[in-house]
Sequence to fold (689 residues):
Amino acid sequence: MTCPLCDILKTCCADPMKFLGDWFVLLPALVLLLAAGAAVVMRNLIHAALCLTLSFIALGIVFIALGAEFVGFVQLLVYVGAVAMVIVFAILLTKPERLTKSGSAFSGLGPAGGAAVGFVALVALLGFIFTSPLAKKPLPAPASAPVAAIGEALMGDYVVALIAIAVLLTAALVGAAVIAMEDKQP
Amino acid sequence: MNLIERAPIELLHWFLNLLGSFGVPQWILAIVSAVLIIGTVIGVFLGLFALMSVMERKILARAQNRYGPNRVGFFRWRLCGLFQPVADGIKMITKEDLVPRTADHVVHFLAPVVMLIPALLVLAILPYGRDMVPADLNAGILYFFAVGAGTEVAVFMAGWASNNKYSVLGGMRAIAQMISYEIPLVIAAIIAAMISGSLSLPAIVAAQGGFAWGFVPQWFVLTPWGFVACLLFYIAALAESNRSPFDLPEGESELVAGHLTEYSGFKYAIFFMAEYVGMFAVCGLLVTLFLGGWQAPLPFLVIVPSWCWFFGKVCFVAFTMVWVRATLPRLRIDHMLAFAWKFLLPMSFAAFLSAACWHYAGRGPLAWLLSLAIVGIPYLILGTAFSNRFAVSRRTYQFSE
Amino acid sequence: MTLQILLAISAILFAFGLAAVLSRSNSIMILIGIELMLGAANLNFITFWRFSENPSDLVGILFAIFSIAVAAAEAAVGLAIIILVHRRINSVEADDASNLKG
Fold:
């Protein structure tokens, strides 16, 4: 009767790179879940935004570890460099009170209601995941998506989507600037 | 001298073979190799940082007609003050580390760390010499900018955690500046990547190889679009590193020290180090993208080792950055942001279009003229549109009677 | 490392985002929840790309890239709206924007 710990140690010492291969994905995923959980629960808004930034970084590292390096770097560049900064700027510009003093940080369904609905959704999703025959796939050989292939696909088959995204981003940028602009007193 | 050029790599291989002959397993050899390479790169750049901190003060001083620090040496030798970094380091370590009582201690502590980590991480993709790149990533330039986005998070953390109105204002201004100047920076880098056909930095250096007509190097800076892109990258790099003339967030006469107000002692030293290492990293990227990387400028100068050329060019670009600091006054925040959005952004698009036209017009003489026109006409138009020549009226004097 | 573990991680992330949207009162926290849900969907796409039989078909990666771009645009517009609403009613709580309440 071999103990599981001895098994883990044996695989570790035999070929540590393969053993670490799984943990390159699972460790950032763990950090991701912890940071996301912390971001959802925290009362201090800036701390929640910083935990969200940490979860974005962890998600980017998960993408890189899964072999989609381009998406991982784009995630870091766009989410951490832009979205997190915009969220932080909005928090600073609207200057909410530092900590909850009178009102509670939870409303709507309340903490219990929100957690219950989230839990029900999670149970439903996990039920689908662990009973579906489609999800019992083994890990294929490591895949790679070279940037040249992504570029050719974007400019080739998916050029309409690319141009649509460009128009969308321009419209969103101009719209956000117009919305947030101060009304000029005549 | 092929021997000197290959010396660092041959030394590493010899050491790894030595360890392998002792029966060390393969995975330990991989870890040892990685640690040695990382240690060498970080050691070289920290040494450059120490040298830069004293050389900047001396160059600034000479520009201002005075000597810089010229006393610190050891054992009665002055050594022209080149041991000043040692004295600065001892000072920084032994200074009292004050943290305001109402500051957010965790975030205040983590901000310097989060600032230094991206600055060190981006050193991994620069090609220091022929076949001497620590990590040859397929999307090298994208990695550089993705990791550099962490610097903005650190600036915000430093500004907000200090619980000080000057710090918050300084931090917000610094982030606005960094985000505004990131766009010309990225577009200028993409121009070089577009012409080379790859995002990988060794491929971009290789695309600048060879000599036209036997002696003219084919660096990107020697083309019209490349020159403009290099200048754009240089200006945006000055702004990204918060260096003068874009150092409003950390100038002493503005907002005390901005987001660095409440930092003293070793934490301030880490911010200082992160700024200089970031400056060297972005100088290294500029050299790689536009100045030919480790390539020699003339065919007979290939004798000099490739890593000597790389670090020589990086030091030259850093010297020009100090020179600019000594020469130009500081920009106001609204001037700074207007400069980025109204001048640099259209010029970067013009350079992009010019590079594409140069490539598709066949890279011949007509292509050179076309690209020069595409980049020169917007420059003239934008330059005259934003100059103050027509805004300042003739000076009139009024005297009391 | 199986497909199920990665899908379970993405499901947990989605559940966190859903709980944040439904239970927090600050509208910026609601936006944070939305971003977490979008991140979970992106993780699903990349996971299925990794486990697909022909990884040279880059649909999963391209969808994730487009999703990231759209999420950034949505975050910018959403936060601009939050700033505008704050200017009108001087509050970012979602419950305070109740002018149309019957």
